[in-house]
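Internal ticket - ligand job 358, nicotinamide-adenine-dinucleotide:
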Amino acid sequence: MKEIFVDLGTDSYNITIDNGILNQVGTLISKVITPRKAIVVTDNIVAPLYGKIVLDSLSECRFDVKLVSLALGEEQKTLSKAEELYEHLFDHEMDRKSLIVALGGGVLGDLAGFVAATFMRGIPFVQIPTTLLAHVDSSIGGKVAVNHPRGKNMIGCFYQPKAVFIDTDTLRTLPKAEITAGMVEVMKYGMIKDADFFEYIDKHLPEILALDPDALEEIIYNSCKTKASVVELDETEQGVRAILNYGHTIGHALEALTSYKKYRHGDAVAMGMIYVSKIARAMNLADDTVLKRQESLFLKLGLSLKDTELNPHDIVSKLYQDKKTIAGKLRFVLPTRIGNVIIDDSVSDKTILNALTE
Ligand SMILES: NC(=O)c1ccc[n+]([C@@H]2O[C@H](COP(=O)([O-])OP(=O)(O)OC[C@H]3O[C@@H](n4cnc5c(N)ncnc54)[C@H](O)[C@@H]3O)[C@@H](O)[C@H]2O)c1
Ligand SMILES: [Zn+2]
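stdout (structure tokens):
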């Protein structure tokens, strides 16, 4: 078992990582929050896999708990789905002290966290993430949101969970493509802050993809540790937290231009990481090995890195519509070497276009 303390003053919490802890979550949660009325929120795919084990564990520890399973996907991460969940909270007579337990992937965690943040001006919640992306990214850091027809994650706030419990065994039922998508975020942490970790991933990829428990614990622990350290410095993304968006600026544009249908998030971010590495190379910030090492790891993951359909000019236009664009300036996270990035808003449209068409 590994633990990470996320130091955010009065909003601090622990991340616990281990295999086979779902049947102990009742005990673990009751160490942080005294037993009370609670709802386990999950989706229709995760409910039959892990709903009962979590529900039973909480009941055994004297939580007055009910399971709510939602039909959910990225298209349903909406305000109307949040309203559906508020109804369940009222039906179960939840009050300001009651607890929400979010059991699922990033979509479920973002939605349940948003509802926890807004129901009666905020009630406690804990995260039990069940996808690799949720283990290493969405369950930590307190960004909660729903989508709006005008854009992804446009309605939301910062609201930290009381604890995060990561059971690496949950990855055994996850489709392979979801593991690959999560691995892109794992690689991101190596790229932005930790060259040794990048080497570890490169060397141990077969064990990781075979879901070896020690390898999984290692990559999840390192990823969470890096994310936590960045969030501690800049909880509400005023500055340095932006490095977590490495690969995401262009990645988001690719996703948006294809209406979120063609690419998985991880696939689009991988392409984004390649494009910004080309930009960094063109600006003499990074050498060719930075690009080549990422490309080689992506290929080992089985990702295809070419977009042949989109017009590069459309991609650049889309970049200017991103919510992270500040005063009309594009902000890029550029690698200088494996394990280090800088934030730069001086990249010219011509350099971007060259990287996209190369
Ligand atoms: N809050 C943040 O900081 C943050 C960061 C990154 C991403 N996100 C958000 O996360 C979302 C993507 O999350 P995701 O990649 O986890 O996708 P997801 O939540 O859609 O899960 C992918 C699929 O896997 C299923 N699933 C979940 N756990 C499973 C398991 N253990 N076994 C079998 N199937 C399982 C889900 O039902 C779903 O069908 C996006 O909405 C994105 O905006 C948020
Ligand atoms: Zn991401």
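Auto-summary: The pocket of nicotinamide-adenine-dinucleotide (ligand 1) is lined by residues 43, 45-46, 49, 74, 77, 104-108, 110, 130-131, 133-134, 137-138, 141, 143, 152-153, 170, 173-174, 178 (CB under 6 Å). Residues 189-357 form a domain with the Dehydroquinate synthase-like, alpha domain fold (CATH 1.20.1090.10).
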